[in-house]
Amino acid sequence: MKPGTMSADAFLAEAQIMKQCNHPKLVRLYAVCTKGEPYYIVTEYMRNGSLIEYLRNVNNRLSIHSLVDMSAQVASGMMYLESRKLVHRDLAARNVLVGDKISGVPEVKVADFGLARKLMEENIYEAQTGTKFPVKWTAPEAAQYGNFTVKSDVWSYGILLYEIFTLGHTPYPGVHNRDVLRDLENGKRMACPKNCPQGIYQEMLNCWDQNPDRRPTFEYLFTFFDDFFISSQPNYVPPSVDGTVFDVQAIDGVEGEEIGGGRRRVRRRSR
């Protein structure tokens, strides 16, 4: 960590949060060092680096099965944080790490708990005045008022889905940070990525509901992606490792209409 950005006590408090989080889809903390600046944390090694770089690497030919499975893995880790009343506050593909492949699918884990906070009794964490956040990944209520909840993490998860299904494109392409919140208030949402299944795009829109209370839970999102092929294809057969490659392109604008409607009921599989 850069010198001067956090006191030793604050750093240890952050490390304590990581230490308490024990889940297979969260990066594990092994040790901390605060003897002198810069402070260090030692975590498990994920050999393929960040998800954003992995998605952008043209050598990583990813099938839609892999993209859906990685979405489920992230939702699984976030479901655990949700159950512990913890907010991540910086969920994005850059903060998800990629390990080895398991059954042909890359293993991913949620990382970077530097902003994670325990929610208060009212289930809201209010950030300090002047704190800076990545606008394109941050829910409107969090960016404008500093109010972070599990539902603001759900919004960020929707942006992460956009990153996954565009193979690492930056959200709101061509739109400046200062214009993003204005466009969102006017009801604009990013259009469906090319070749992205409509049901998955619908869940992106559900995550981006202006009303936080109407956004889905991570428990629901995990179930949706974990059972996606079972619930959408009656005679589903798991694809081979060399399955169809998912070809996507960047979206030029943010004019997509917001779509309402109910969510599917799906069956849960053990994971």
From TrEMBL:
InterPro entries: Kinase-like_dom_sf (IPR011009), Non-receptor_tyrosine_kinases (IPR050198), Prot_kinase_dom (IPR000719), Ser-Thr/Tyr_kinase_cat_dom (IPR001245), Tyr_kinase_AS (IPR008266), Tyr_kinase_cat_dom (IPR020635). Transmembrane segments: none annotated. ATP binds at R94. The active site is at D90 (proton acceptor). Residues 1-229 form the Protein kinase domain. Mg(2+) binds at N95, D112. One of its GO terms (molecular function) is metal ion binding. SUPFAM superfamilies: Protein kinase-like (PK-like). Keywords: ATP-binding, Magnesium, Metal-binding, Nucleotide-binding, Phosphoprotein, SH3 domain. PANTHER family: TYROSINE-PROTEIN KINASE. This is Protein kinase domain-containing protein.
